[in-house]
User: Fold this.
Amino acid sequence: MSWGDFRKEYEERGLPCAAPGTRQAAGFALDHFERLAKPVRVRTINSRTFAGYVAARQLEHTGRDHESGPVVSPATVNKELRTLRAVIRKAHKWGYLPNVPEIEFLSEPCKLPTYVTPEHFAKLYQSAGAARWPACGPFATADWWRALLVSAYMTGWRIGALLALCREDVNLDEGWAISRAADNKGKRDQRVPLHPLVVQHLRKLISFSPLVFPWNHGRRDLFLEFQRFRTPPR
Assistant:
């Protein structure tokens, strides 16, 4: 099996139910792997192939031309390796690779987790009034962001699960919501009680959208807008 044929089959059969973010990450990792390792046949891929890929990848920069910007971090390389490991395991499962090669990951610096203090959260809550997007509903943009912030803070849900939350999966009168398996990391339906403060904020987001948090821009734009209004002007 040629690498090109395998990749095409993997993208058609191996990722049909994957979330859009997973498919995108797989595409990025495979593109970098093809560019640096230049695989021809699946059966020839071994540990040396990955060692060469890691050696070349960690010397690159994050700019579009791979010659500008900061050097690619070990965390980024390891993320790509985890994706590639899943791809290679699928090749072995389908009989295209006799053995799954061992992949050595890079050491990452240990960082202490950071948390949003109540004081910082209060500042974020207040600065949401400066947000420009989304502008896709009859509700105020500041109400959208404040509801999102409060929901994330009180439930612990990831941003993807919140943005995918459907109105039909929320009961504000009884105070609960369901996160579907396709949208959360646990890959199972989860019904969770909602704090009255969350319910209070969600009641302000009345619209005809099937989603509780409609967002008519790209995912990257959401983080850019959050960064913009959370950083006070100098």
Observations:
- The chain has nine helices and three strands.
- The radius of gyration is 22 Å.
- The longest helix spans residues 74-93.
